Amino acid sequence: MTIKTGDKIPSVMLKQLTANGMQDLSTDSVFKGKKIVMFAVPGAFTPTCSAKHLPGYTERMDEFKNQGLEVVCLAVNDPFVMKAWSDNAKAEGITMLADGNATFTKALGLEMDGTGYGLGTRCQRFALYAEDGVVKNLAVEKPGAFEVSSAEAMLKAISTKAAA
Asked: How far apart are CA 80 and CA 59, in angstroms?
């Protein structure tokens, strides 16, 4: 079952490569008591992800920060790839999280079958906004699309919710 607005973020362990090496990071610690925008990509270094998705969030980081929002990027990749992608893209301020076994992705119900492309199980392209671990907005892209999960779309969705 796919997560939806009003649902609590599932409690799962993810990986992050830091200056202190590989770290386990629980989704509880990522989301608890915070306002988080998480965007997810089918894969680091893939065309749309590298040319549009990640750069859009990097370029708009100040707008997210000014609203008290933290930005997190998720992919079904290993933490070394996520760190290399972050360094390559100069993704300052974005927390890059690896869901190497797609455990979190499956818990969200947002996995996709990329075996036809040699990718195995990956996550669908999506973005969500959560407050204190509760989903307030979820935007899942149609296959091959890049419209509703962009930084611009999420900023607009969040400001619309705040105004309501």
From this structure: 23
DSSP strand pairing (94-98 vs 35-41) = unpaired
Among this protein's residues, is 73 annotated catalytic? no
- Which among 3, 38, 49, 89 is annotated as catalytic? 49
Query: pLDDT tens digits for 36-63?
Result: 999 999 989 988 888 889 999 999 999 9
User: Whats the size of the chain, residue-wise?
Assistant: 164
- Cβ burial 71-100 (10 Å sphere, 16+ → b, else e): bbbbbbbbbebbbbbbeebebeebbbbbbb
**Helices assigned H by DSSP within the chain:** 27-31, 47-48, 54-59, 61-66, 79-89, 103-108, 151-163
Tell me if residue 138 falls in helix, strand or coil: strand
Query: What is the per-residue pLDDT across 133-158, written as a single tens digit (0 to 9) for each?
Result: 999 999 999 988 999 999 999 999 99
Enumerate residues 6+ apart whose C-beta is below 8 A from 56: 150, 151, 152
CA distance 139 to 155: 12
